[in-house]
Amino acid sequence: MKIIRISFILALxxxxxxxxxxYFFNTRETLIRNQTNKVEVVIDTIVSSIExxxxxxxxxxxxxxxxxxxxxxxxxxxxxxxxxxxxxxxxVRLAKELELQGITLFTQQGDDVVxxxxxxxxxxxxxxxxxxxxxxxxxxHQLLTEHEVTLIPGFGEKRKNFWSGPIDTSSANPNMVSKWxxxxxxxxxxxxxxxxxxxxxxxxxxxxxxxxxxxxxxxREDFVLDVSVVNSTAxxxxxxxxxxxxxxxxxxxxxVYGDYRYQSLDDRKHVLEALGKDDSIREIVxxxxxxxxxxxxxxxxxxxxxxxDELVIIVAxxxxxxxxxLNEQLIQQLIASSIVFIIAFGGxxxxxxxxxxxxxxxxxxxxxxxxxxxxxxxxxxxxxxxxNHHLYTIAGLMKIEAYxxxxxxxxxxxxxxxxxxxxxxxxIPAFSGLLQSKLTESGEKGIEFEYHFEHMEHLxxxxxxxxxxxxxxxxxxxxxxxxxxxxxxxxxxxxxxxxLYKNKELTISIQNNGAPISSDELSKIFSFGYTSRKNKGxxxxxxxxxxxxxxxxxxxxxxxxxPEFTRFIIKMPVSNKEILES
Length: 582
Known about the structure:
Keywords: ATP-binding, Kinase, Membrane, Nucleotide-binding, Plasmid, Transferase, Transmembrane, Transmembrane helix, Two-component regulatory system. GO terms for molecular function: ATP binding; identical protein binding; protein histidine kinase activity. This protein is an alpha+beta fold. Helices cover 47% and strands 21% of the residues. The chain has helices at residues 2-78, 88-97, 135-146, 199-208, 210-220, 232-237, 267-277, 319-356, 365-379, 384-400, 404-413, 429-445, 463-485, 519-524, 542-551, and strands spanning 102-109, 112-118, 157-159, 162-169, 177-183, 191-197, 224-231, 255-257, 281-287, 290-303, 306-318, 448-454, 494-502, 505-512, 556-561, 566-573.
């Protein structure tokens, strides 16, 4: 039979462990999926915002291209056709009149197109051969030789005798970001390059574009830590820099939108994977020892007019929210598993008892309470403040049941001597055990301990109510012991307990003749942390926890004190189900 019990318990533990593991992984995946779905809503919003930005940028680029072409024709009409006859002062005047950021005239010099004259000195001598791997030079050369361009789709805007390049960083002045236009109709030996800043499109992006959408998402959603749109080429290959200045081209910057605060060394690998699949992927990464759930989503738009650069949205969301909810659900699952285990173990225990001791078909109330009090001891063993009360209770119960060997063993553990007094017999076995142990303790400490009970033989209280009643009475009796022992004047030292059941209410009065309690102390006595024995090891927990535990059952505890006695009065309602039939 013992082998059967052990085998059953091991099988039950194994089954519950497997169930809990499956529950853990399934729950974690569900929580991650739920947060991922929320992130995808944010991503869809960002994608729509980028699409709107692209439409606004196209409109803006078309508008500026037309403006720049008109300005270029005006410049051509105002300048001589030969570059040698053009004066820099004239370019300065024209730039001011036309409200341009600058005007540069380019000429073909060998296999390069070079800035020859400009209102900005830094533009002079500027080589264009290597811009964007020769794509700009290709446009310039066509304009100078053929006076038209074959437009590369998505790379700038084409007009008659005119091409406008994408908004980008100035090679000559990396602090300047401009929209560039280039014109040549064959009547001049130079390429006219008017350009203006991108202030209006920048204002749009700041107040109504993708960055505004990102800010709204980060502020609105508590799970969103950071939203960024990055240039995949810059992330994978590194940012390219302008000429010899070390400043990054606008079109080559890593951060296109957002702040990209949660960068990870694994981002490059995950971005490559997302681009390869052309689909979102999610990963849990560690950043400064913090777990972050990151989602990588390729955007179906290129980075401005740069045909090689693909955009990727990277959303960092708070994994700790998932972990917190997962922990809460795991605790609930463990509690449920523990209940299942206890029920199954209890069923096995009762089945074994039924088989081995057929003559005991009905357990008496005392045996049931004994079993529950043993369980109570296991449950509250970590509660150091209350542990001794329950140890004493168990010792008293064992004595009531005449488990002499077990009683001697328990009394050895709690350092009790075999009491010689009469047994305390109250119809609440756990309470009887507590009083039995306190009766023994009072004899050792020279305290007179009296108890009087009326009509309690009709009670059959619930175990939870008995447990909290024993805890509260134990705390009050202990405090009574301290009160009489701390008062050297009082002799004899006396504690009296009265118990009365009447009109569906149990009243227990515990009084002692220690020093009276002042009115100021009475007002604070049930507050957590308050104790009058701080210098003697008092914690201020016992009475406060007792009050709270009694209130769970609708009970109360009150105190009054006079020069003769201090009385703690506990009242507990009794339901019809807790009254034994006569």
